[in-house]
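Q: what sequence does this backbone want?
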């Protein structure tokens, strides 16, 4: 358990999807994603768990992991469950954050989707980004989650949001919550980097990231935009180096985190600190007086700074 997702010790479980005709009473509907295998599965009196990883990986060495879980008889709302998860995340991961993604009733059951981020899992030395869906059933409580050890590109997030959207609870005893009405959808293949439907990104919910969570999404990437009439490009290296080019002027400085702000120190300039917000590929920096600057995110270091 030490090298699995930091969240897996907090919530876990899944059932494989049989044919609809075999289902009885209340069930969770989901599928083994294409290109994935079941790496770990366990059932006891209180819960059922299945952890799925790409072929060629394991639950001790993974880049993506899907976990679906059933907590038998648990009576809790999705909001209560999230609050407990957030509490446990704060205790387990320094700088861990949570951001809501979607909320509503699905097939007659209350559901909640949110993003949890851990800047650094001490056991792996890597960050973790986990999208979680919780569904409050009548008989049990159901959770599905998709975890990554690096912030995935927007297209990949879009596909996995569709996967989570298709995870559903149904009950063969209730006509208005029938299993036939709860549609399922095949997840993207392991490691998929592009959406099959180019319009899907506008259909799936995405989280607006703030504070440390937003900055984590910028680490290893660049931003570009207008800087007093010049084109600004900045690259933020994982080692704390910041490289900036405005027009023809190239500078190398340092970035550091101070609480929920990121601070920059370039030679010859005072230290400037900002609150950061990331929404899809748009990064917004807020300075101390509340004024803001908005830039477009670029993957990696395309300008070779």
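A:
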């Amino acid at each position: 358990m030490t090298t699995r997702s930091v969240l897996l010790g907090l919530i876990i479980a899944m059932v494989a999807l049989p044919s609809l005709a075999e289902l009885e009473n209340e069930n969770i509907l989901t599928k083994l994603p294409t290109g994935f295998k079941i790496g770990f599965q366990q059932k006891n009196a209180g819960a059922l768990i299945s952890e799925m990883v790409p072929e060629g990986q394991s639950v001790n060495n993974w880049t993506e992991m899907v976990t679906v879980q059933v907590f038998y008889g648990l009576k809790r709302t999705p909001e209560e469950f999230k609050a407990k998860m957030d509490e446990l995340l704060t205790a387990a991961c320094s700088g861990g954050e949570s951001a809501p993604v979607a909320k509503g009733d699905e097939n007659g059951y209350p559901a909640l989707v949110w993003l949890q981020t851990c800047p650094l899992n001490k056991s792996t030395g890597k960050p973790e980004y986990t999208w979680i869906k919780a569904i409050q059933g009548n008989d049990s409580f159901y959770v599905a989650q998709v975890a990554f050890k690096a912030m995935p590109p927007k297209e990949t997030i879009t596909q996995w949001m569709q996967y989570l959207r298709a995870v559903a609870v149904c009950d063969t005893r209730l006509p208005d919550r029938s299993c036939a009405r709860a549609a399922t959808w095949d997840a993207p293949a392991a490691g998929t980097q592009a959406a099959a439907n180019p319009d899907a990104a506008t259909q799936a919910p995405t989280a607006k990231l703030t504070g440390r969570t937003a900055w984590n999404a910028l680490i290893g990437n660049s931003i570009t935009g207008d800087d007093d009439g010049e084109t600004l490009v900045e690259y933020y290296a994982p080692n704390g180096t910041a490289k900036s080019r405005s027009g023809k002027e190239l500078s190398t400085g340092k970035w550091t985190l101070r609480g929920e702000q990121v601070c920059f120190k370039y030679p010859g300039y005072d230290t400037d600190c900002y609150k950061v917000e990331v929404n899809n590929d748009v990064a917004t920096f807020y300075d101390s007086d509340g004024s803001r600057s908005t830039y477009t995110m670029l993957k990696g270091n395309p300008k070779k700074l």
